[in-house]
Write a structure and sequence with these properties.
The chain is of the alpha/beta class. The protein is built from 9 helices and 10 strands. The strands form 2 sheets. The protein has a 6-stranded mixed β-sheet. Strands 5-4-3-6 form a 4-stranded parallel β-sheet, sandwiched between helices. Helix 3 links the parallel strand 3 and strand 4. The protein is globular, with a radius of gyration of 19 Å.
Length: 314
């Protein structure tokens, strides 16, 4: 499995803030699955219970602690990475709690809420071409690190194995424990792919029959923040396309509809990537006679409330 894993919750250099990462609840969806057999149940891993409000707290904490342990941040070097928002917020929050700074390359069309949060947390920001998206931001970050290796440690979440290891060490064991290892289907969206690769590895090692289902947009032009169409994007180095059992797509419109339904029928205000994953989970649920489905909800809706789809009918 490579280098020894960093235990985020019990690491000797952990702050109280980092030690609070993980142990998020598993919430059963009760109204949206109406009409399904009682033997089919859907549970959401509520990742907005992490301290910064997203699943990205797990890999950000792991990457930071590993970099500190390896001496990558000695002599005043800054952690540098690209982000579309959530990962950057996680980095910035933990860095602020440690008296450190991070430098983030982020597309200039990132939401106003994200920019305000990052600035309030003291992150240094380099804005990148909005048309190039998160892939373009990654290129800019890599160029910055190459020009100033003494100043920056380029964490590169798309390549950094600590990304998936964070989920192997925390998300996977939590789901196994919360379901008594009775989970039959695990569903997560694909962005950097760390959640699927790490959690999926842990679950498969303990139950080879669990089905790993990846959710992604149905094309390169989409409105699903945080998710990638892997067919049209550069593949993250930590991603193994042959690892999951199945990949399913979700349209932007279907994700928006499900996000509104989750709010109005389940009382769960979540982001659109959660809506996409839930849409795939419901699709799977209608195809089986028995099963315990766990789907990852990466964040809440609070950074997406200005999107117009909220005003549409369910």
């Amino acid at each position: 499995m490579g280098a020894p894993l960093v235990n985020v919750r019990n690491h000797p250099t952990s702050t109280t803030l980092i030690a609070s990462v993980g142990e998020t609840p598993l919430l059963e969806l009760t109204r949206i699955p109406a009409g399904l057999p009682e033997t089919v149940r859907i549970f959401a891993k509520a990742e907005w219970f992490n301290p910064s409000g997203s699943v990205k707290d797990r890999p950000a904490a792991q990457i930071l602690l590993k970099a500190m342990a390896n001496g990558d941040l000695n002599d005043g070097r800054e952690l540098l990475d690209s982000t579309s928002g959530n990962m950057g917020i996680s980095y910035a929050m933990f860095a602020a709690s440690m008296g450190r700074t991070v430098h983030l390359a982020i597309p200039s069309n990132a939401s106003r809420e994200r920019m305000i949060i990052l600035k309030m947390l003291g992150a240094e920001i380099t804005l990148t071409d909005p048309l190039e998206g998160s892939d373009g931001a990654r290129v800019v970050a890599a160029e910055m690190a190459a020009r100033n290796p003494e100043r920056y440690f380029f964490a590169d979440q798309y390549r950094n194995a600590e990304n998936w290891r964070a989920h192997y060490e925390t998300t996977g064991p939590e789901i196994a424990s919360q379901t008594n290892l009775k989970v039959t289907h695990f569903i997560a969206g694909l962005g950097t792919s760390g959640t699927m690769m790490g959690t999926g590895r842990y679950l498969k090692e303990r139950n080879k029959s669990v089905q790993l289902i990846a959710a992604q947009p149905d094309g390169p032009l989409h409105g699903l923040e945080g998710l990638k169409d892997m067919q049209s994007s550069p593949l993250p180095e930590i991603y193994d396309p042959s690892f999951h059992d199945e990949i399913r797509t979700c349209s932007t419109e279907a994700a928006y509809r499900m996000t509104r339904r989750l709010a109005q029928e389940e009382g769960l205000l979540v982001g659109v990537s959660s809506g996409a994953a839930a849409s795939v989970a419901l699709e799977v649920a209608h195809e089986i006679d028995e099963g315990l489905i766990v789907v990852v909800f990466p964040d809440s809706a609070y950074k997406y409330l200005d999107l117009s789809f909220w005003n549409q009918r369910p």
